[in-house]
Amino acid sequence: MLLICGLGITCGVHRLWTHRSYKVIVPVKFFLMACFCSSGQNSIYDWVRDHRLHHKFADTDADPHNVNRGFFFSHIGWLMMQKNESVLTKGKLIDMSDIESDSHLMFQHKYHNQLKILFCFLIPTLMNIFLIGEDWKCAVAWQCFIRFLCVLHSELTVNSLAHMYGYKPYNVNIEASENILVSVLTYGEGYHNFHHVFPFDFRAAETMDFFSLSTKIIRTFEKIGWAYDLKQASPEMIESARNKLGGDGSKAHN
Q1: CA-CA to 253 of 20 to 30 Å: which in 32, 97, 115, 197?
Q2: What pTM did the predictor assign?
């Protein structure tokens, strides 16, 4: 379940729907939607809007999880309180026409609470009980609490740790950093300095790193005809950006 949830976040709502880094055939789209619902997040629409807002106004008052407000806020606090006026105002300006024109994604937005209960809690718990014979109390504890919280907090380290600690080989002027620990926890999403400089790139990092599982899966989908139109920054583009924006001299992780 941890892997399934991770796929829904990294390959689904993040790379596919927020950044439009690649395209998939319809069955894979539904699969990734189900994977995302199993993670217990907000709706795809809300997730995409907030993340696009984060990229457009990173580390400012209009950033939903502005790291300059401290670790707790950027990690979990922003989900525990109302959004400030800057986030609400700027959020209305984010172009969401691609999501709004997709009837499948809007269906998920309308019924995301019901789908969350079904895919994140009910089905996983019943699978543990009936497929592996686990006691119902253990199944509930694992799927409804432990697994859910592990997925949530591992994902949130991208907003907190990867904006506070790490190296910056592509742009030293932003908070987003390359953080190996976060990459281990999130299947490669911790190479955040690269991602903020090249958000359109389907890869989690410049190189095919061992931890970039989402990149490997998208590559596999492409090879078997399930994914296509993969967007990728060229070596020349990467080097040009590094020279123009000024990295910290560290090397891309190999």
Answers
A1: 32
A2: 0.95
* Radius of gyration for the chain, computed over Cα atoms and rounded to the nearest angstrom: 18
For residue 75, tell me if it sits in a domain: yes
pLDDT tens digits for the chain (254 residues)?
Answer: 888 999 999 999 999 999 999 999 999 999 999 999 999 999 999 999 999 999 999 999 999 999 999 999 999 999 999 999 999 999 999 999 999 999 999 999 999 999 999 999 999 999 999 999 999 999 999 999 999 999 999 999 999 999 999 999 999 999 999 999 999 999 989 999 999 999 999 998 888 667 788 999 999 999 999 999 999 999 999 999 888 888 777 776 54
Task: Give the range of the structural domain holding residue 178, as residue numbers without chain letter.
Answer: 2-245
Residue 231 lies in a domain: yes
DSSP classification of residue 78:
G
In a domain, 250, yes or no: no
How many domains in the chain? 1
Query: What is the C-alpha to C-alpha distance for residues 238 and 233, in angstroms, rounded to an integer?
Result: 6
Q: How far is CA 145 from CA 49, 148, 150, 185, 188, in A?
A: 27, 5, 8, 18, 24
> Does residue 253 fall inside a structural domain?
no
Q: How far apart are CA 76 and CA 243, in angstroms?
A: 35
Question: Dihedral, CA atoms, 188, 193, 75, 85, nearest 10 degrees?
Answer: -130
Please name the helix (run of DSSP H) or strand (run of DSSP E) that holds residue 23, with its range, or none. Answer: strand 23-24
CA 9, 90, 151: angle at the middle one, nearest 5?
20
Separation of alpha carbons 165 and 40, rounded Å: 27
From residue 11, alpha-carbon distances to 7, 127, 249 in Å are 5, 24, 30
